[in-house]
Amino acid sequence: MRNTILLLLTSLLVTLAACKQFSAPGKIEVIQSYLPGIWVVEYIGDRPVVDRSPARIHFAEDGTLNGNASCNRFFGKYSYTEETLIIEPLGTTKMACVPALMEQEARFLAAFPTAAQATLENEILILRDAAGQQIIRAARDESETE
């Protein structure tokens, strides 16, 4: 019995040691490798964007960002630490659009600066606030070149 337990514990330790070699990259590596690029916004909070919405986010490798908030263009800077995504205050243009896009843009501009976490889930970028609530869900825009 003692040998069986010892064998099981040894097997468990070997298995755990092997798992460590194949662990997922840290958050910062994920952000560095996946965040840069153009992302098409699909959801703001728990609401889908309007059909054919122009909402896009472009995270550049140099820490700048820009895009379309639904009607107006925005621009700014971002950075990240191991645990936190930081979106600096954004600048925007000031055009008027149809009410549905203006309402969506207001939600986007209220939510996006609160992003504190970025994760990639099944090739979908999920931005969450400090409380862990999803604020933006976006898919990589494969149609545009950077």
UniProtKB/TrEMBL annotation:
Domain DUF306: 37-137
InterPro entries on file: DUF306_Meta_HslJ, HslJ-like_sf, Hsp_HslJ-like
A Pfam family the protein falls into: META
Stated name of the protein: META domain-containing protein
Leader sequence residues: 1-23
Keywords noted in UniProt: Signal
